[in-house]
Write a structure and sequence with these properties.
The chain is an alpha/beta fold. The protein contains seven helices and seven strands, in the order H-E-H-E-H-E-H-E-E-H-E-E-H-H. It has one domain: Beta Polymerase, domain 2. Helix content is 43%, strand content 21%. It has a seven-stranded mixed beta sheet with strand order 3-4-5-2-1-7-6. A hairpin with a 2-residue loop joins strand 4 and strand 5. The longest helix has 18 residues.
């Protein structure tokens, strides 16, 4: 069973290491007013070598391990900038909860696309960029997963209220 989500330490480690990233997914939806609970933090980092070095440092600080649904325990995770950037999605577990890294979330072209309309926010005392509500909706629509079908009506209503 994964540890309960404590987003503060995860966001803090990313910020302390100077990682450029945008918070996406369910946690971003929560920020925008969704009542749907999320069990993880999803991010899209900038995919430059320097940023991937910083991300690797943050993941070591967080003692991140690879989440494997078929196993009871996460797997050890040796990584560097090159290995991180070679994979599009990482599903990780930290002592502070699950962290999912998606370099190109569904419906987007990645960090620059999401960064353009991201909102600067302070979450649990940490300055972060949160994907815009329109980008969260766009990505969830493109992903077309059953869990997204549950949250999309609420997110579309919030977006409609936001754009009025």
């Amino acid at each position: 069973m994964p540890p309960p989500l404590e987003p503060g330490p995860i966001l803090d480690a990313l910020q302390e290491n100077g990682v450029r990233f945008v918070v996406i997914g369910g946690f971003a939806a929560l920020y925008h007013g969704s009542a749907h609970i999320t069990q993880d933090i999803d991010i899209t980092p900038e995919r430059t070598p320097d940023n991937l070095d910083r991300l690797s440092d943050a993941l070591r600080q967080l003692d991140a391990r690879v989440r494997a649904t078929a196993l009871d325990e996460p797997l050890p995770f040796a990584h560097n900038a090159r290995s991180l950037g070679a994979v599009d999605v990482w599903n990780l577990q930290t002592p502070h909860g699950d962290l999912d890294i998606s370099f190109t979330p569904a419906g987007t072209t990645g960090y620059a696309d999401l960064h353009r309309d991201a909102i600067d926010a302070t979450v649990l005392g940490v300055r972060v960029e949160i994907a815009s509500l329109a980008d969260v909706v766009r990505s969830k629509e493109a992903a077309d997963r059953p869990k997204d079908h549950l949250t999309l009506p609420t997110l579309r209503r919030l977006l409609d209220e936001q754009t009025r």
